[in-house]
Specification:
About 35% of the residues lie in helices and about 25% in strands. The chain is α/β, with parallel strands linked by helices. Helix 8 (about 205-215) runs parallel beside helix 9 and helix 12 packs parallel to helix 14 (about 345-365).
Length: about 425
């Protein structure tokens, strides 16, 4: 008998992608033909893993559900299931508005979908996954949830309280993935800074990364989504100690104005933020810092925005993203602050700081011309091989375009010479 085909569509962040990879493994272990985002729908079962974080992401998720409802109505697929953050947050409303969906699952109960479809308890493990990224890199989710309750953020409302995974379980997962050819590990959580606080009574991020770095086959480790308040300073010693811990830190700062940071409930002020950044750069020479900033949060007047611009000029972040404030229902900000900054002002401010960052990025890239850097090759295109340095995370950061002069292998490391630069890419020769 032909195996039922399951197509899994993933929206949102890399944490969602890890959930989809575990789901694919569960389906495969239980006799299904599971595929991640096939080029064309294969006709049986479609599962959409949704994002419910901000307005644009919610709209994308809803549009995708509607697209597949239409496909079901036209007989192109037999059944449709939805999981993830959007359905976790808006389950009752979605059920009422979209009765064509055959089943709804949240952020943590999606394994029940496999149980229901297979009519048995699914065979699985805590970390077994089908890797959907290029086989040389993977994301490692070390915790779920968040205890910070920043006033703009709905994540704690969706995912609940912070919950670390045990160190030994994570180490087993990394060892398993290295045996399958994974070399680069992007460590992710909503709040890396809090890792271990719930399980072990204190920060254990440094110990975890130190032990991952010692696993044979681990070539690169990269840290994503640290929180600036109560930052675990001992992780800097681990970064400086190990060559395979990338000199890269993703730490969302959001703002620099004391007034705005207070309104955001970030538990840190501007002076403390600057001191933290200075200490990070002092203890980890050559580190590239990625941050995220926000424009238009309540309390951000012209004075506060000028502070933010000066902060961007002064810090010269190697990697930076930004977004305009979008009020999220049921958050502290929605309850206690008036979202009274016009959208056009928010967007203008956003454009200003991103234009500033583009110039900074261009100058930083120009400074790399003539240097030799180590890259990992992700893919081959017509005119270039495309790689990344240790300072570049997949999909969110810039790339290195390597001129073709000899055969290079995907997933392998090479030393290349930077010969030119663009705003957000480097050109190299080997």
């Amino acid at each position: 008998m032909a195996r039922k085909k399951v197509d899994v569509i993933t929206l949102g962040c890399s944490k969602n992608l890890v959930d989809s990879e575990r789901l694919l493994s569960m389906f495969a272990r239980n006799g299904f033909d599971a595929c991640h985002e096939p080029e064309h729908s294969r006709g049986d079962i479609t599962v959409i893993n949704t994002c419910g974080f901000i307005g644009d992401a919610k709209e994308e998720s809803i549009d995708m559900i509607l697209r597949y409802i239409d496909a079901k109505n036209k007989g192109k697929i037999k059944s449709l299931y939805v999981m993830g953050c959007l359905s976790q947050r808006y389950l009752d409303e979605l059920k009422a508005e979209m009765p064509e969906v055959d089943g709804w699952y949240g952020k943590f109960d999606w394994h029940e979908l496999v149980t229901m479809l297979s009519r048995q308890n699914p065979a699985t493990s805590e970390y077994d996954r089908v890797i959907t990224t290029p086989r040389h890199y993977a994301y490692i989710k070390i915790a779920e949830g968040c205890n910070r309750f920043c006033s703009f953020c709905a994540i704690p409302l969706i995912t609940g309280r912070f919950k670390s995974r045990p160190i030994e379980e994570i180490l087993k997962e990394v060892a398993d993935l290295t045996s399958r050819g994974v070399k680069e590990f992007n460590i992710i959580a909503q709040d890396l800074s809090s890792y271990g606080s719930d399980l072990y009574g204190g920060h254990r991020l440094a110990e975890l990364i130190d032990r991952i770095a010692g696993i044979p086959g681990v070539k690169w480790i990269r840290l994503h989504y640290a929180y600036p308040a109560d930052f675990p300073m001992d992780i800097l010693d681990v970064m400086a100690k190990h060559d395979n811990v990338c000199k890269y830190l993703d730490i969302a700062l959001q703002h620099i104005s004391d007034n705005v940071l207070t309104n955001m409930r970030r538990h840190i002020n501007g002076e403390q933020t600057r001191e933290l950044l200075a200490e990070i750069r002092r203890r980890v020479p050559g580190i590239h810092i990625r941050t995220t900033l926000m424009t238009g949060f309540p309390g951000e007047g012209d004075k506060e925005f000028e502070e933010l611009k000066e902060f961007v000029r002064e810090q010269r972040f190697e990697r930076m993203g930004a977004f305009a404030y979008c009020e999220e229902e049921d958050t502290y900000g929605a309850k206690y602050f008036s979202d009274d900054i016009p959208d056009e002002v928010k967007q203008q401010r956003l454009s200003e700081i991103m234009d500033m960052q583009a110039e900074i990025a261009a100058r930083l890239n120009e400074a790399k011309i003539g240097t030799t850097v180590r890259v990992i090759v992700d893919r081959e295109e017509d005119d270039y091989y495309v790689g990344r340095t240790e300072w570049d995370s997949p999909e969110v950061d810039q790339e290195v375009l390597i001129k073709k002069s000899r055969k290079l292998e995907k997933g392998e490391f090479y030393d290349v010479r930077i010969v030119d630069s663009q705003f957000f890419d480097l050109i190299a020769e080997i």
